[in-house]
Design brief:
Layout: E1 2-3, E2 37-42, H1 50-63, E3 103-110, E4 117-122, H2 127-132, H3 135-138, E5 158-165, E6 174-178, E7 183-184, E8 187-188, E9 208-215, E10 227-231, H4 234-246, E11 249-250, E12 252-254, E13 257-259, E14 261-268
Antiparallel strand pairs: 1-14, 2-5, 2-6, 3-4, 3-5, 7-12, 8-11, 9-10, 9-14, 12-13
Length: 269
């Protein structure tokens, strides 16, 4: 079996449930202020409710397809219907931001539901990072929250904003959300996962499946969270679900506390 992971629903092969490491700081206690910041700045001074800025910052962080070199090798992750959102956004394990990953998205939101106007600028030499930014508005992660409604207290037909990635605006009205400063993955307890191959499953080739499930803070799969994203054999997909329901895990950790978290995993060939 291979972990495909879900931190930001990212995918990477691993021998166990080595999921979402991302921008982690070793040890505890973690200082949340060290987490990578995403800020929303109001350009039209005095026209936006700060609650709207806060909600947009948090929503944008969970909608952003954070860079992942391995994600392009898989397709099943786009079929995720629901994922558990952690208290703080988290990073996938095959890309980690550093001090060079800074950029700004200039955004105009329209009252009548028209598509937002979005333009990116930045100095980072990481092309994957730079190309990922507009996904907040045009290709969000599956299971991400919708953008907040157009602010009701605004008198105009549009509002102008800036989303600052990796930096805090030097001035103005803004709100910031930070990615987890410390995170550890969900881990399978050895010997607790036993998948039985149904008779005749897979034909000439070993059966395979890509599945999604949530692991709660009690170290068990959350009831109702299992979803088969791709499978060579339906019976094998059901067998994987039955095995995961009996398996035991060490729950994921974020900022030094256990959390419920979503995992994508590949079984078979």
């Amino acid at each position: 079996m291979r972990t495909i992971l879900c931190a930001a629903v990212m995918m990477a092969a691993a021998p166990a449930l080595d999921a979402q490491l991302g921008a982690q700081q070793p040890g505890c206690p973690a200082d949340p202020v060290r987490g990578y910041p995403l800020s929303v700045l109001a350009l039209d001074s005095g026209t936006l409710d700060t609650l709207f800025l806060r909600d947009l910052a948090r929503t944008a962080a969970f909608r952003w397809q954070t860079p992942s070199p391995g994600r392009r090798r898989h397709t099943g992750w786009r079929q995720v219907r629901h994922r558990t959102l952690p208290p703080e956004p988290r990073w996938a394990d095959d890309w980690t931001p550093d001090s060079t990953h800074r950029a700004v998205l200039a955004v105009t939101l329209h009252r009548e539901g028209r598509e937002p106007a979005v333009a990116a600028r930045g100095e980072s030499g990481d092309r994957l990072f730079y190309r990922s930014l507009q996904s907040v508005f045009d290709d969000p992660m599956p299971g991400a929250p919708p953008l907040p409604a157009f602010p009701s207290g605004t008198t105009g037909d549009s509002v102008r904003l800036e989303l600052h990635f990796g930096a805090i605006p030097p001035s103005g009205e803004y709100r910031t959300v930070r990615f987890a400063a410390q995170q550890r993955p969900v881990r399978l307890l050895p010997g607790t996962l036993r998948v039985t191959q149904p008779p005749g499953a897979g034909g000439r080739r070993p059966p395979s499946a890509i599945v999604k499930y949530d692991v709660g803070t009690d170290g068990r799969m959350v009831a109702g969270s299992f979803q088969v994203l791709e499978a060579s054999d339906r019976a094998f997909g059901r067998s994987v679900g039955d095995a995961l329901a009996q398996a035991r895990f060490t729950p994921a950790e974020s900022n030094c506390r256990p959390i419920a978290h979503t995992v994508l995993q590949a079984f078979g060939s």
